[in-house]
Amino acid sequence: MKRKASYKLRVTRRESLYVHDEPDHTLMILELEGEPLEYEVGVAGEFVSRRSINFHDRIKGTGPMQGYTITNFQYGSVYSRLEGHRDGSTKTSTGTWKTYKGTGKLAGIKGEGSFRVTTGEGSNEYILDMEGDYEL
């Protein structure tokens, strides 16, 4: 089944280390929490929480990213892995995600799709738009 969702993400923790091999090369780990802006209630019930941990390797704001996400619903949780790329000039990240575990009513879930992250209104706020296919 095809699904789409949008979330407002907020950075709750950010750690950066400079590599010092060229100007503005940083390794960054981010923790983000989110709430739905647009989402359709599914078999697992109402949204409860969303948390992700992401790793970025950026040179002047551009580079690869990867991470893990857990989204909790009333009757189950889904765990996903993501891979993508951030464009420092547009401050936009795009990539793919794939589920690797589900609990409760989401046990055995399989899913994959794409995502796009753009800047939000606040300084540590982002908008995540995602879509994909799920199978239970």
Molecular structure report:
This protein has 136 residues and is an all-beta fold. It has a single domain, classed as Beta Barrel (AOC barrel-like), CATH 2.40.350. The protein is built from no helices and 8 strands. Strands 1-2-3-4-5-6-7-8 form an 8-stranded antiparallel barrel.
What gap, in angstroms, lies between the N and C termini?
Answer: 9 Å
What is the strand content?
A: over 45%
The CATH architecture name reads Beta Barrel
Strand order of the largest sheet: 1-2-3-4-5-6-7-8
State the major sheet. 8 strands, antiparallel, barrel
Question: What is the succession of H and E elements?
Answer: EEEEEEEE
Quick check: average pLDDT? 95
The CATH class name reads Mainly Beta
Total beta strand runs: 8
CATH homology-level superfamily: SO1590-like
| Derived structural class | mainly beta
CATH level-3 fold name:
AOC barrel-like
Number of helices: 0
Globally, the shape reads: elongated
Helix percentage: under 10%
Low-confidence stretches: none
Overall tally of domains = 1
- Report the radius of gyration as a whole number of Å: 15 Å
